Amino acid sequence: MKHIIPVLALSLISLSTSAQELNTLTAKEKKAGWKLLFNGKNAEGWHTYLQKDASAAWKVQDGALALDQEAKKNGAPGGDLVTNDEYENYELTLEWKISEGGNSGIIFGVHEDPKFQATYLTGPEMQVLDDAKHPDGKFPKHNSGDLYDLKKSEKNAVKPTGEWNKVKILKKDGKLTFWLNGVKTVETTMGSEEWKTLLANSKFKNWKGFGEYAKGHIALQDHGNEVWYRNIKIHVL
């Protein structure tokens, strides 16, 4: 007897399969030495900047690390989430989704020290933004995929707000390369003449410590808006 599976059932099976694939490594990734930075269940491996543990404002929602602004209103402290470990040469991949009018960022090379009261005081940032509705979207070097306030994306590759965007950041011996949704957006080398020029033309030109640490933490920014991150993976080079 031929069995016919209803379309709805097929859809549910597809969704279930997709959910199971979130925050996991493929056999190929495992063999290559990739590691998960987010297990899909909790904030293990992360903590709030300058704190021991992760703030309760960072929750897991539908397989993503989500910044819950309502939780902050109810007393949970906010703050940028940073990896427990530090990294120097690596390939980082992840997916992000931003709320309407929202702002966040992926910050790296973060030197955690009380004399630096915020992650962005030492770490450069790949911008995460609702380009269309956040005020920063009107400024060059402040759009999604940009090296924030340093270098503008070569191409606009961001998806509409509410959709997932795929990021790859390659950092090797100071050379930075950004991809957003498969499109290379930024390339430069930290400490190079180009870097010095970019720095001199940015808000960071007089910030002692900014971009000076080859090895540092990776941070997900709390900029006061809801944001979601998932499939966070790293391959140390």
UniProtKB/TrEMBL annotation:
Residues 33-234 form the 3-keto-alpha-glucoside-1,2-lyase/3-keto-2-hydroxy-glucal hydratase domain. The keyword Signal applies. Keywords: Signal. One of its GO terms (molecular function) is hydrolase activity. Gene3D superfamilies: Exo-inulinase, domain 1. Residues 1-19 form the signal peptide. It holds the Pfam family 3keto-disac_hyd. This is Uncharacterized protein DUF1080. It comes from Chitinophaga ginsengisoli.
